[in-house]
Amino acid sequence: MKDNTNYFDVNKATWNKKVAIHAQSDMYNLEAFKNGKSSLMPYELKALGKVEGKSLLHLQCHFGQDTLSWSRMGAKCVGVDLSDEGVNLAKQLNEELQLDAEFVCCNVLDTSKHISDTFDIVFTSYGTIGWLPDLKPWAKMISERLKVGGTFYIVEFHPIAWMFDYVDGESKMKYHYSQDEVIYEEYKGTYANQDSEMVSKEYGWNHGLGEVVNSLIEAGLQIEYLNEYDESPYDVFSNLIKTESGMYKMENQLYPMIFEIKATKI
């Protein structure tokens, strides 16, 4: 198996730098969040419904806003993230808001080495699987952490969107739909603050829908549905237009921007 440690180390350093910038950004709107605004989007709220009294594991949670939003809804939450700066801020917010979530700093692929509990729900969203070189160990870990009959839910940017290079502010098709070779990008700013002087150094991988679905099936999950949508809740790609629903789409929409999968451990 290929050693990806260096890739993960570079990504961790970048995400550690992003935390302070994102915490001050309009996109994350931390003050509104502290005052009770949920960070969760319509897709995941509709898919998971009432979570009160359920245990929930949130993978790649950044600095914990979504984890804490689920916690406010009554779920017993654990968040996992690679960034120790992110986890530290998540813990601070949890204490400040007097919630009962827990946070663990580790590579998401190593989750089962750090957490032995099983959960009613495993959740991950928006810009997560592209940081992973292989989805088979990811899906295996999800199955390990789910109770029998438990729900896995992912909502994620569509793999077609990652075929383009957006670094120069234009969309140029550059990468394969399902690319095994690592992709390296280096650019100023972040998706939440494009004017930041911070230099993002990132290694990522592209995963097609077939790979996502088959990895979950192989790990013992039964797919309830796979849906694709033309609108994104985040303005993170070039030249998007805000719709009446508050979502974002392209002027010339030729492919989906978001997909969601709900699955059950059998």
Automatic annotation (TrEMBL):
<dbReference type="GO" id="GO:0032259">
    <property type="term" value="P:methylation"/>
</dbReference>
<protein>
    <submittedName>
        <fullName>Methyltransferase domain-containing protein</fullName>
    </submittedName>
</protein>
<feature type="domain" description="Methyltransferase type 11">
    <location>
        <begin position="58"/>
        <end position="154"/>
    </location>
</feature>
<dbReference type="InterPro" id="IPR013216">
    <property type="entry name" value="Methyltransf_11"/>
</dbReference>
<dbReference type="InterPro" id="IPR029063">
    <property type="entry name" value="SAM-dependent_MTases_sf"/>
</dbReference>
<keyword id="KW-0489">Methyltransferase</keyword>
<dbReference type="Pfam" id="PF08241">
    <property type="entry name" value="Methyltransf_11"/>
</dbReference>
<dbReference type="GO" id="GO:0008757">
    <property type="term" value="F:S-adenosylmethionine-dependent methyltransferase activity"/>
</dbReference>
<keyword id="KW-0808">Transferase</keyword>
